[in-house]
């Protein structure tokens, strides 16, 4: 990957109108959590899906808030009982998944539900909810992405390299998404999401 700005093309929105299921995907450290958090504060009527993961919590994270942190056995059980809408092993290390129940409930209630998940998960949701709006959050440039990842300092250098390898694959596949939003500033990215999701 060169250090040129990475502003990939999207395939374009297929429909307009109220959005129920929305997927927000994008590479490591692009700021998905920050942007979705700000969206939730400005639009408390939306539901944000809370994932389960076998990854251990970071010092700043709280169980039941950022994720439900569960054991590999618990994760296996969720898969076996059909409790996950989608799941994936991310960055070749830990598993992450979207509990099915809360998403189905939000859809039944006609509420917009946002899933912040990786590329593999986005592909699975495309099968289950073809009408979902899928948004790819992109960094203003590759160098900026690297800077954000190093700057947050929550991963070892080896983990950072692994995450950047995954990021290259994700950026190369951004054209699968309905829209690409560049996270240059949080306010700008949130405004674009509000527009795309007709909130
Ligand atoms: P992190 O470890 O930085 O919290 O997340 C790593 C990656 O896992 C991010 O790309 C994030 O979007 C993705 N992820 C988080 N929750 C889920 C989920 O439920 N399903 C899938 N497929 N990916 C997830």
From TrEMBL:
Does Transferase show up as a keyword for this record?
A: yes
Give the location in the cell.
Cytoplasm
Give the top-rank taxon of the lineage listed in the UniProt record for this protein.
Bacteria
Which EC numbers characterise this protein's activity in its record?
2.7.4.8
**What Pfam families would the database entry show?**
Guanylate_kin
Chief location: cytoplasm
Can you name one GO molecular function term for this protein? GMP kinase activity
Q: Which residues form the Guanylate kinase-like domain?
A: 19-198
InterPro entries in the record: GK/Ca_channel_bsu, Guanylate_kin-like_dom, Guanylate_kinase, Guanylate_kinase_CS, P-loop_NTPase
Is Transferase a UniProt keyword of this protein?
yes
Entry's transmembrane regions: none
The reaction(s) annotated as catalysed by this protein in its Swiss-Prot or TrEMBL entry are:
GMP + ATP = GDP + ADP
Q: Which UniProt keywords apply?
A: ATP-binding, Cytoplasm, Kinase, Nucleotide-binding, Transferase
> What Gene Ontology cellular-component terms does the record carry?
cytosol
**UniProt binding sites for ATP:** 26-33
Provide the family line. Belongs to the guanylate kinase family.
Q: What does this protein do?
A: Essential for recycling GMP and indirectly, cGMP.
- PANTHER family named in the record: GUANYLATE KINASE, GUANYLATE KINASE-RELATED
Name of the protein in question: Guanylate kinase
